[in-house]
Specification:
61 residues; mainly alpha; 2 helices; 84% helix
Length: 61
């Protein structure tokens, strides 16, 4: 379930990033790989935060 939540969170982040990109009038001028990098980063951020939080919890254990 935790993995599913992380995945859903990542998908939501990607959608939010896509909407942000679409709302920028100049998004077409950006290099596609740059936009893709932003999306990948947006997807990875929540997962990385959760992993760090879990590691902290385990250490405290």
């Amino acid at each position: 379930a935790e993995k599913q939540a992380a995945f859903a969170e990542g998908m939501m982040a990607i959608q939010a990033e896509l909407i942000k990109q679409a709302l920028r009038p100049w998004w077409l001028l950006r290099l596609p790989h740059e936009a893709f990098h932003d999306m990948a980063h947006a997807a990875a951020a929540p997962t990385a935060r959760r992993i760090k939080a879990n590691a902290r919890r385990l250490r405290r254990g």
